[in-house]
Amino acid sequence: MIVNSWNEWDPLREVVVGSADNACFEPIEPGNRPTVRNAPAGSPFPTGPKPRAAIERANEELAGLAALLESRGITVRRPTPHDFAAPVRTPDFEVANQYCAVCPRDVMITIGHEIIEATMSRRARYFEFRPYRELVYEYWNADPDVVWTTAPKPSMDDGMYREEFWEWPLAERHRRMHSFEFCVSQDQVVFDAADISRFGRDLIVQESMTTNRTGISWLKRHLEPRGFRVHPVHFPLDHFPSHIDCTFVPLRPGLVLTNPERPLLDRDARLFLDNDWQLVDAPQPTSGNDEMPEYCQSSKWLSMNVLSLSPTTVVCEEQEKPLQDLLSKLDFEVLTVPFRNVFEYGGSLHCATWDIHREGGQEDYFPTLTRP
Ligand code: ARG
């Protein structure tokens, strides 16, 4: 048995770590409006391949993570090279270049013995499964229990997006925060894998800019007959939600690290509170939003994007001392690596990995769902 992973915290045995090889700047497209941080409005975002030096800096930190994991006896695999500078043209859209293979978490998810390739939500990421296909074939050939599923690709034509979303002033976003309508419409199945968080039998999925309700319905219909329960969750104060792993981060049975600026909607929190889960707020990150790298599109809350090696050991970014202290107080062994040069490629430690094997099986952490 090679492919086996049911949650975000069981002891990690095999993992894929992303690579910045051939990475490009993310293009402007209907599902994404990247901006240069702290630059005057209208400043152009760079296009095409990232500079060689920036790629080398990111690759060095990714290699550092890989080395740390290997030193703990974990098998580390890497994506195969892909030409991200190549444009993509389908019958429905055209995009000047692709993005990168730094964040396998966004594209690929292991749920038990099944590997699912997400639909993705942005044009530049349409073919981002390709750098992982060799690995998927290898696992699929080696392990007869592996189920391999590719979710239905949406068209990503202009009609799939709601471009007016990008123009809403903050007050408008605030007014609409409970409608959970973002830059993708509800007409097609759309989800990124990183909007899902795994809790054994239960999967928590965030409605976001990168996952719509139709995507969650697909996940429900696909996974519930296989013994899972899929729960949509909402963080109304996150006006640009994308990927749940800087917002709601389970660390071990009974404990979730939460984002103090993005509380879970009360009705969604009930599931956790009724089942004696503790929601513990992360401390303020060491960098403010304005101090994040200039091409980084993520928030300061990448601080929370930790990678669990087990229910007692967690990897944290080197500079995030307040979070490290909190985790130590919560009885975790805290390992650290520098990772800030990876931030402009879409994420931090959790994003840059994809679990292939964690020990353990499918457990029920929410007993009130079966015995009220
Ligand atoms: N949207 C998140 C934030 O800025 C970043 C999520 C990164 N996660 C990922 N899997 N790429 O807070």
Could you explain how this protein is built, in words?
The chain is of the alpha/beta class. The chain has a domain at 12-38 and 46-246 and 354-369: 5-stranded Propeller (L-arginine/glycine Amidinotransferase, Chain A), CATH 3.75.10.10. It has seven helices and 17 strands. The chain has helices at 52-71, 104-107, 130-142, 170-175, 213-223, 266-274, 321-329; strands spanning 12-17, 75-77, 88-89, 94-95, 108-111, 114-117, 147-150, 196-199, 202-206, 229-233, 248-252, 255-258, 278-281, 307-310, 313-317, 333-337, 353-358. Strands 2-1-17 form a three-stranded mixed β-sheet. Strand 6, helix 3 and strand 7 form a beta-alpha-beta unit. The chain is globular, with a radius of gyration of 19 Å. 46% of the residues are buried. The model has no long low-confidence stretch (mean pLDDT 98). Arginine (ARG) binds at residues 103, 105-106, 194, 242-243, 245-246, 298-299, 301, 346-347, 351. Arginine binds at residues 103, 105-106, 194, 242-243, 245-246, 298-299, 301, 346-347, 351.
